[in-house]
Design brief:
This protein is of the alpha/beta class. The protein contains 5 helices and 9 strands, in the order H-E-H-E-H-E-H-E-E-E-H-E-E-E.
Length: 200
Amino acid sequence: MTVMELSPGFADPVRESALAFRAMLDAMSNPGRVVELPILASPPDRFSSAATVVALSLLDADTPVWIDPELRSEAVESYLRFHAGCPIVERADQCRFAFLTASGVPLATETLPIGTPEYPDRSATAVVLCNSLAGGEVRTLRGPGIANRTDFAPTGLSTDGWQALSRNAALFPLGIDTIFVSGNAVAALPRSTRISGGEG
């Protein structure tokens, strides 16, 4: 694939990155809240607009990226390298950002960096591509940024996936942060968020 064949990045990178970052900060500050991104992006093969906006806003040469084999393609790799300048790594435990499908969440929580007691910020952020951010298995979220409780039900996230995220939350302040994306919307699940429900 040549550079000329790549989907375009942001037309106004500084402005659009700032707008997208504020929207993602809103999502991270309010776990489980679905936030529509204020801008669109033309995604490469297998990515959504939201996944692409996250990549263009948060990735750079200092953020190694791992891509789930179900999402990885020459188009995606070329796009991220050209527009974000990020290195693509072969091993999940070497990344700072990971792009994966909902079915890959259980394995990701076992392999992505979770930080260390001295440096909990040296953990990875998982960007999970879903068909929808509603209509899946419902779980109740509590914790910082949530007044009382909120329900969240992204499609494709299995019981095993929810259990893996619950185990991840128990590691706090270690653990991964998760951003769910679908279409042009995002919702976040920081590692500090407690998950309940679905026991039956």
